[in-house]
Amino acid sequence: MDNALSLSADNRTPLSSERIAAMDAYWRACNYLAAGMIYLRDNPLLREPLRREHIKQRLLGHWGASPGLSFAYVHLNRIITERHQEAIFIAGPGHGAPGVLAPVYLEGTYSEIYPNTSEDEDGLTSFFKQFSFPGGIGSHCTPETPGSIHEGGELGYSISHAFGAAFDNPRLLVAVVVGDGEAETGPLATSWHSNKFLNPIRDGAVLPILHLNGYKINNPTLLARIPRDELAALMRGYGWVPHFVEGDDPAAMHQQMAATLDRCLDQIREIQQRARTSGQATRAHWPMIVLRTPKGWTGPREVGGKQVEGSWRSHQVPLSDLDANPDRIRQLEDWLRSYRPDELFDRAGRLIPELKALAPKGLMRMSASPHANGGLLRRALRMPDYRQHAQTVAQPGRVSAMNTKPLGAFLRDVMAKNMDNFRVFGPDENTSNKLDAIYAVSKKLWLADYLPEDADGGELAPDGRVLEMLSEHTLEGWYEGYVLTGRHGFFATYEAFVHVIDSMYNQHAKWLAISEEIPWRAPVSSINLLITSTVWRQDHNGFTHQDPGFLDVVVNKNPEVTRIYLPPDVNCLLFTADHCLRSRNDINVIVADKQMHLQYLDMDQAITHCTKGVGIWDWASNDQGGEPDVVMVGCGDIPTKEALAATALLREYFPDLRIRFINVVDLFRMQPEGEHPHGLSDRDFDSLFTVDKPIIFNFHGYPWLIHRLAYRRTNHKNLHVRGYKEKGHINTPLELAIENEIDRFSLAIDVINRVPRLQVSGAHVKERLKDHKIACRQYAHEHGTDAPDLANWTWPH
């Protein structure tokens, strides 16, 4: 059955005429509330003739998609009630909040959470007024919306969020309405492939409802204008079984939608039961619905002689310019009264009991589901001891190791202890990023066809918990949906291409920042992003792979939810990862390259150093008991190595030069404490960095970011930052460092230039250092590698 192609509506008639009338009345109530949110600030039930003072001065909101959203919501409520089906609702259309807020209010959840919007006339007045109104709520399904895990502020992520919610939730149905404008975005187009990653034994189900109402803001939508068989072929090509519900007559559409939902749920249960009975998880062809309705359904048919319902003109506010056209107030009242609110609400302003009875009860309401407030379901991870993977460091800076390889072993142990609520995400790069130890306990999830040669790697399995797909958008969407419904994860990706999810990061950061202010939103697990294959080791990939600018994007967001860590070695990375996996309501960005790097701190030292976030490395400093002549700073693995090498050179050439060496792990320690929760106090900052000595700061990313963070510091005028400056192509690692002046020779020259007593006496040394830079370039271009004595440099003892 799941392989059948449905091109026509189901011919069953599951609804009696009485049930159709009741469901239509409930839907009319939803539509009345949706329109009321856009227009009314008083007289919420039209108990008196509508006047201009009852109407908001500024009309904001989006009507066009709202009737279709509430239509789907009302029909899903029937499925929940009759089948005792746990479900949550995701609204993909960005500004479709009125179509969701209305049923959320009618089923009582909104008033339970916000007592001022009680289920009576006064509460309804408050409910209407707050919508798109200063001090109120926005026109998306924001974090303030009960039952929402998807705001839709930026289009394209609804399906991937839905699948993230369904993973490891075997009893859950995630209904996701996809707007036909949203369906034109790249992330949404790719996310249709998510069905190939749904394990019918251990996962729940996702039911996409592609809502074709024909228009975007003022243009037709592509999927609404292609022939029906072409659209069906497209959906089938993605691996779905499409079912069509089409029309504009409410009674016929109610019957058609009910029959189609019944058929889809039957197919879902058959797929799940077959897999769960046999114990064999195979790729299924899941059902989906194409719901075609007029845009602005049930709204004004025309305004000013121009078509509105079924046209782009209904996208936002169908009736506007009320002051210039007073007759439109009467047209607005006629429209609102067409829903017959006096039949739907009692004298106190409450939904009448026979309609109230149609909604699910308690936690079965989609707006009250704990899955949509995932912190309520969150269980802390059972954490292994990260110290078991510690790198032995007898002397700092003498041995090298792959920083991320022990992290892979640690993640393997985390996975082993949390096989039902932890997943690892990555775009086909986990092995490249040296995290492949995780495959020892959980393979890559793969439900599609196998070929004989696939057995060689042995990393594919239908029950794998490592999710790999070459779409950072889809992975991040899965991850966010998984976390927002109460679980944990870890995402590793290449530094240059994490920018693919810049906007997704922005949206999630905004969601978390607002959620922090909402008392009923329970904290969720943090998003943990490992950024690797970094800028300073792109000796063969070249210029396109050189971009550390994601850190600049992170810094733009609310400091309450943003964290950036640049651990310089294995032990610092392990401690940082453990800390991040335990945290809540943050986005943790960890920058750590996957290649061989010098190791500096044993585990006890790493714990102390990372706990402080920034600190002096005494073993690399010689200013003990006095003031330094210069402060040398490393932030990031390669910048730290080059800063140490510069320090060693300077101490060799100028034995009496007093150098303080500082390493920064927690980037936000550079900000004042009043600007970020991790910020250093000015006193501590001045103690470390001095108030008047030159600071040579060697940074992993773009240098101006450090100035942005530290511009208010006392000694900012003496802060000289080296970082990536968009220089480089196919270079050896040291040559690339020289191109951007973060190399040991450039740093040492900078110190000579900044320390007054060396500006003249250091001239000969400076010339020698310049010669070294030229020689390094010549060697690289002749041999294709860096000179061994430089590439294999270690800290002298």
Written account of the structure:
The chain is α/β, with parallel strands linked by helices and 797 residues long. It is built from 27 helices and 22 strands. The chain has a 6-stranded parallel β-sheet with strand order 12-9-13-14-16-15, sandwiched between helices. The chain has a 5-stranded parallel β-sheet with strand order 1-2-3-5-4, sandwiched between helices. Strands 18-20-19-21-22 form a 5-stranded mixed β-sheet, sandwiched between helices. Helix 1 crosses helix 2 (66-83), helix 1 (17-39) crosses helix 3 and helix 24 packs antiparallel against helix 26. The longest helix has 29 residues, at 250-278. Mean pLDDT is 95; it is low at 1-9. Belongs to the XFP family. It comes from Thioalkalicoccus limnaeus. Its EC number is 4.1.2.-. Its cofactor is thiamine diphosphate.
Residue share in helices? 25-40%
Amino- and carboxy-terminal Cα gap: 73 Å
**Total helical elements:** 27
> Rg, please?
30 Å
How much β-strand is present in the residues? 5-15%
Largest sheet: 6 strands, parallel
**What fold name goes in the CATH topology slot of the largest domain?**
Rossmann fold
Mean pLDDT, rounded to whole units?
95
Number of strands: 22
Name given to the CATH homologous superfamily of the largest domain: Thiamin diphosphate (ThDP)-binding fold, Pyr/PP domains
**Overall form:** elongated
Shape-level CATH architecture of the largest domain: 3-Layer(aba) Sandwich
Q: Low-confidence segments, ≥5 residues, pLDDT <50?
A: 1-9
In the sheet with the most strands, the strands line up as: 12-9-13-14-16-15
Structural class: alpha/beta
The level 1 CATH classification of the largest domain is Alpha Beta
Number of domains: 3
EC number: 4.1.2.-
Protein name: Probable phosphoketolase
Family: Belongs to the XFP family.
Keywords: Lyase, Thiamine pyrophosphate
